[in-house]
Design brief:
This protein has 14 helices and no strands. With about 300 residues, the chain is mostly helical. The two termini are about 35 Å apart.
């Protein structure tokens, strides 16, 4: 009986490993298939695709669709718009979230838990219910001319930065506060003995220790804010101010028959998020595994 169980154990273990590898391979193929097909379509001339169909053997491969999307579609302009929106929004969100998380997790006062609940509850509010109130508020709020050409918060890149920071702040506070709670309190006590102020404890001690969590959040925030479509079409009305996601929608209306060029534009739009992930890959994976070995 023992021998039979011993033989069955290694066999079942090998079967489990093979099954997991087959499943991962199938999932990877399913995930990569539309991307590879989009790349294949973007490299084919439009006339050839219209004559032979999308599912056919290509006779010519060219980069003309990429150059057309970059020049005629003015993808460079929309890339810059996304950069001016994404980078400030990510930096401001992380700085504000780290400050709030430090207060609610490292300081003891009466309302720290209530404050954390307030920031976390903001993520439960659907964005769609705020369209009309935000539209009226954005039209009523006037800003300096160097921040908005229209003189209002509406139809400005600043407006997208503000709304993205507002909606992403709660999640970041929740994640960072939970991570900061895992940092030993002995560090704070030693810093107090050395005469460190509250700011020094936050900026020089706790914040550097949160680097993996900050990198993971920076990767997620960059992806979410860069790929935002809802607020981009709601709070921006001028075409040349819109970020890359809503610009792709405009390209579909302008070049509705040239699906090859639209596929090329979509692939170019995905490059920045891939670059950010590659640069922060180690920190991102370390941030995802935080707390997995803690009891």
């Amino acid at each position: 009986m023992t021998t039979a169980l011993a033989v069955r154990g290694p066999r079942s273990g090998r079967f489990g490993r093979v099954s997991a590898q087959v499943f991962m391979l199938a999932a990877a193929v399913l995930w990569l298939t539309p991307i590879v097909f989009a790349l294949y379509v973007s490299l084919r001339p439009e006339k050839e695709t219209n004559r032979l169909g999308y599912v056919s053997i290509a006779h010519t491969l060219t980069l003309s669709n990429f150059t057309t999307a970059w020049k005629q579609g003015e993808m460079w302009r929309f890339f810059l718009n996304s950069v001016w929106i994404t980078v400030p929004a990510v930096v401001i969100t992380l700085m504000l979230a780290s400050g709030v998380a430090f207060v609610v997790s490292r300081l003891n006062f009466r309302f720290n838990i209530a404050l954390l609940i307030v920031f976390t509850a903001g993520n439960l509010l659907p964005q769609q219910v705020l369209i009309m109130p935000l539209y009226k508020i954005y039209n009523a709020v006037h800003v300096a001319s160097f921040l908005s050409d229209s003189g209002r918060l509406y139809d400005s890149r600043l407006g997208l930065v503000v709304i993205n920071v507002s909606f992403q702040l709660g999640f970041c506070v929740f994640v960072l506060s939970n991570y900061m709670k895992t940092i030993p309190t002995d560090i704070d006590e030693a810093a107090l003995v050395d005469g460190a102020s509250l700011w020094l404890r936050y900026w020089r001690i706790v914040l550097p220790l949160c680097r993996p969590a900050m990198a993971a959040l920076a990767t997620l925030l960059t992806t979410w804010i860069y790929n935002d479509f809802f607020w981009a079409i709601t709070l921006i009305s001028t075409g040349n101010k819109r970020p890359i996601t809503s610009a792709l929608n405009n390209l579909q209306g302008q070049f509705v028959t040239n699906q090859n060029m639209i596929a090329a534009a979509a692939l170019m739009a995905a490059i920045p998020t891939l670059v950010v992930y590659v640069l922060l890959q180690k920190q991102f994976i370390a941030g995802l595994s935080l707390g997995s070995s803690k009891g």
